[in-house]
Amino acid sequence: MNEKIFEISFGIIGHAGDAKSTAHEALGEAKLGNFEKARELLKEANETLTKAHRFQTELIQAEASGEKTEMGVVLVHSQDHLMTTMNFLQLAKEFVDMYEFIYSKLEK
């Protein structure tokens, strides 16, 4: 695997991992009833995930312009991290909303 693909792969893995950790933290805050903090963390997670997505976009643009992308386990692993984090972030947003709904019903 060439060095550029390796760097891009680890850029995706790093940013996606950070985004997922931040989304986990948001769920913890929501569980405690700290919904404003949870939403701030989800926003931060989304911004970090966008950085990972930019690395992926770089790969797609290179391939679209005729550059051959060398596939390897690290690149596949990075794509797995990105996609699972994207899904997790969507679910985390839903869970924060559900926690807020539950808290609102318990307060009545």
Give descriptors for this structure:
0% strand, mainly alpha, Methane Monooxygenase Hydroxylase, Chain G, domain 1, 108 residues, elongated
How would you describe this protein?
- By secondary structure, this protein is an all-alpha fold.
- The protein has a single domain, classed as Phosphotransferase system, lactose/cellobiose-type IIA subunit (Methane Monooxygenase Hydroxylase, Chain G, domain 1), CATH 1.20.58.80.
- The chain is built from 3 helices and no strands.
- The protein is elongated and about 60 Å long.
- The N and C termini lie far apart (59 Å).
Strands, helices and their partners?
Layout: H1 3-31, H2 35-64, H3 73-106
Helix pairs in contact: 1-2, 1-3, 2-3
CATH architecture: Up-down Bundle
Provide the domain count. 1
What order do the SSEs take from the amino end to the carboxyl end, as H and E? HHH
Structural class: mainly alpha
Give the strand tally. Answer: 0
- What oligomeric state is this? single chain
Please state the CA-atom Rg, rounded to the nearest Å: 17 Å
Main sheet specs: none
Shape: elongated
Looking at this structure, what is the CATH superfamily?
Answer: Phosphotransferase system, lactose/cellobiose-type IIA subunit
CATH topology: Methane Monooxygenase Hydroxylase, Chain G, domain 1
Helical content band: over 70%
- Reading off the top of the CATH hierarchy, the class is best stated as Mainly Alpha
Please mark out the parts with pLDDT under 50 across 5 or more consecutive residues, or reply none: none
Strand % is: under 5%
Q: Counting H and I runs of at least 4 residues, what is the number of helices?
A: 3
Let me know the average pLDDT. 95
Protein name: PTS system, Lactose/Cellobiose specific IIA subunit
Pfam families: PTS_IIA
Cofactor: Mg(2+)
GO biological process, one term: phosphoenolpyruvate-dependent sugar phosphotransferase system
